[in-house]
Amino acid sequence: MDLEVSRKLTIPAAELGWRFSRSSGPGGQHVNTSDSRAELTWDIAASKALSDEQRERLLDKLSGRLVGGTLTVASSEQRSQLRNRENALEKLRGIITAASRPTGRSGARRSRAAARSCAGSTPKGSARR
User: Fold this and answer.
1) Total structural domains within the chain
2) Which of 29, 83, 117, 118 has the least C-beta neighbours within 10 A?
3) What does the H/E/C string look like for the chain?
4) In CATH, what number is assigned to the domain containing residue 55?
């Protein structure tokens, strides 16, 4: 199943890697017999779903979370593997959405009201008396 992050970005299922393992936590005897923990990986550096600009932004903003250009998200909150898979997909979507947003107002003009409020103020370093 493809992961639709936004109207402009859909990650094909073929680019997502899954790994399952036994989860610690609630579940009683069930937790010892089933692989309910889900780990989702996505290789940002090699993704064909991204434009060069998107790839650069994600690699830059997520550099602390990446290992070799690959983003890994794990989920073990639920007893069910299916729910942990859904949770991991939502986590990945949220991380990518947050990192994809442009920062600041670079290149944007200030509003007239903002320019007016600054026009009447005193320059830095000079004190009003």
Assistant:
1) 1
2) 29
3) CCEECCCCCEECHHHEEEEEECCCCCCHHHHHCCCCEEEEEEECCCCCCCCHHHHHHHHHHCCCCEECCEEEEEECCCCCHHHHHHHHHHHHHHHHHHHHCCCCCCCCCCCHHHHHHHHCCCCCCCCCC
4) 3.30.160.20
Strand-pairing partners, residue 11, are 3
State mean pLDDT over 12-34.
Answer: 77
Tokens representing 88 are 């991991």
Q: Which two tokens stand for residue 126?
A: 């000079």
Full domain range(s) for residue 25 = 3-104
Query: Which residues have CB under 8 Å from 112's CB, separation 6+?
Result: none
